Amino acid sequence: MRRASTSTFISPRRTVLLPTVTLTPATMASIWTTAGCAKSLAVTSRAALCPTNVAFLPASRLLATTCIPRTSGLPSTPPNRPTRVPSTPPLQATRKSMLIPLRLGVSNGIGTRFVFPSNWHGCSCCGGRCVVCTTTPTVCVFRSFFHCFSCKGVDYLKVDGCGDRSYYPTGYPKMGKALVNSGRDIVYSCSWPAYLGNDEASKPYDVMIASHCNLWRNWRDIQCNWGSLSSIIDHWGDYGPVLAKYAAAGHFNDPDMLLIGNDCITDVEAATQMAIWSIIAAPLIMGNDLRNITASQKEILLNKDAIAVNQDSLVQQGLRITPKGDTEVWARNLSDGSVAVGLYNKNGHPSPAPPPPPTSCSSWNITQNGYLEACDGKQGNIGCFEGQTLKDVQQECCDNPYCAGFSFEASKGYGCLKKNTDCGMHQNNSFVGYDKPSFTPPQPGPPVNITVNFADVGLSGSVKVYDIWTHKQVGVFSSSFSAEVPFHGTGFYRLTKA
User: Which of 51, 370, 421, 427 is 20 to 30 Å from the Cα of 185, by its Cα?
Assistant: First the structure.
């Protein structure tokens, strides 16, 4: 989950493309970076994005939730200007040169504090309970906070859960109601379920929909590595039938941001994330610095055929349709009767497959008063967690072939999964370390053939196969289609009755 410290900024650093307010998943080309507030960030990010012509998205609008220091408040730009960017110093240079109309997004967490400037009529907020004040806070008026959002032209609000969890059942509905009554269409992103553990079947999604949440973070924060990404894909495969029941026009499951545009995954892995996120009708929110995106990464992110699958008007979340394994088939029904199919090579090897690396989940090496640290700093972590039971974390690490062990702090159920345990003992009396007795991470394999049987996706007879990555017709096939898919890659196709 986002740590409370991220609320140092009223708005995280991202730029967002929103095709509609609620009818299809939010498609966001965003700048959630570690670059910090820099005058060049918005200018060069705009230059990196605009020449690629993102206007093909339906009713596309560029929404900038850029880096605004907490002490600077929210922008005072009038809401009806065709181009709206924060007017704080780091972003002033973009006002006249921006090529696409801007929208404004805000991110906060329950339990954090917003400090608005004086020209916002003294609005301030703490934990969602807001006051209207002159020189000092006086009367607590919850709805006034969202009036501030409305009158200042905010289009997107993400509310994280890094605060008192007892506030969730009342706080999130109150915020949703206030947004509905604000007089402005504001996309409402809730992180409520991300703090409720692993079992998606036990989470109150009906209540979230009734609370006007348009999207919600379901599970753990994505980390910038393949192990984290693949674990999220596994989770969506495992709980797909449960989650798909709640995905529809106006409300979507959010598996977290796209890593595409960073150097922590390969282009092949980046294509896999784009394909799976499109099939499961996920919001496409990039977590990168647009100034540093390579041409190949940009090609993946701006693939019109992939985005068309993500934005399909049927708004039906796709599923993993084969058993969980080293190779998988994912599919999504589309509004024109065609089917989007992903042939996913998670850890596939040519037949016969080599034996799995020797690991044991029946026993663990346990380190008291600390844990064995992974090398490479934060990049050595597969991902971190909070509010989890020891049993759940042990199972997650056991199921992940890239997990060598984990740290665990029992009182908060907090810790991190480790790619390796090679960089020595980290002393901390609050933590216990758990490591697999014998650990060898999977080694890259060659491409493998993966087959989709047309009957499994509701098609029969002759079927046309279109390659989404190459934008070319592959041919007409009967009964099935097979393709060679690279290690960690996903073949992405659109199947249509011939």
Answer: 51
Non-local (6+) Cβ contacts of 180 within 8 A are: 212
Alpha carbons within 13 A on the beta-carbon side of 356: 13
Collect all residues with Cβ–Cβ distance below 8 Å to 466 and sequence separation of at least 6.
305, 472, 473, 474, 493, 494, 495, 496
Which residues in 156-181 are b (16+ Cβ under 10 Å) and which e? bbbbbbbbeeebbeebbbbbbbbbee
Residue 483 tokens read as 């393709």
Closest CA to 329 of 493, 95, 174: 493
Residues 6+ positions from 96 with CB-CB distance below 8 Å: none
* Cβ(110)–Cβ(164) below 8 Å: yes
CA-CA distance, 81 to 351, in Å (whole number)? Answer: 61
Three-class SS of 285-307: EEECCHHHCCHHHHHHHCCHHHH
Q: Are 119 and 76 in contact (CB under 8 A)?
A: yes
- For residue 348, give Cα distances in angstroms to 103, 271, 330, 423, 468: 43, 17, 15, 30, 22
Is residue 375's pLDDT more than 90? no
Distance between CA atoms of residues 326 and 347, nearest Å:
5
Q: Which of 160, 256, 289, 435 is catalytic?
A: 160
Query: Which of 155, 206, 221, 392 is labelled catalytic?
Result: 221
Would you say 89 and 71 are in contact if contact means Cβ atoms under 8 Å apart?
A: no
Question: Model confidence over 435-483: pLDDT tens digits?
Answer: 998 787 777 788 999 999 999 999 999 999 999 999 999 999 999 999 9
Query: Concatenated DSSP letters for 68-89?
Result: EEGGG-S----TTSSS----SG
The three-point CA angle 188-60-311 to 5° equals 75
d(CA 208, CA 201): 14
Q: Where are the alpha helices (DSSP H) in 153-266?
A: 168-180, 205-210, 226-244
Rounded CA gap, 389 and 400, in Å? 17
Confirm whether 392 is a catalytic residue: no
pTM for this prediction: 0.71
Mean pLDDT of the 476-494 span:
97
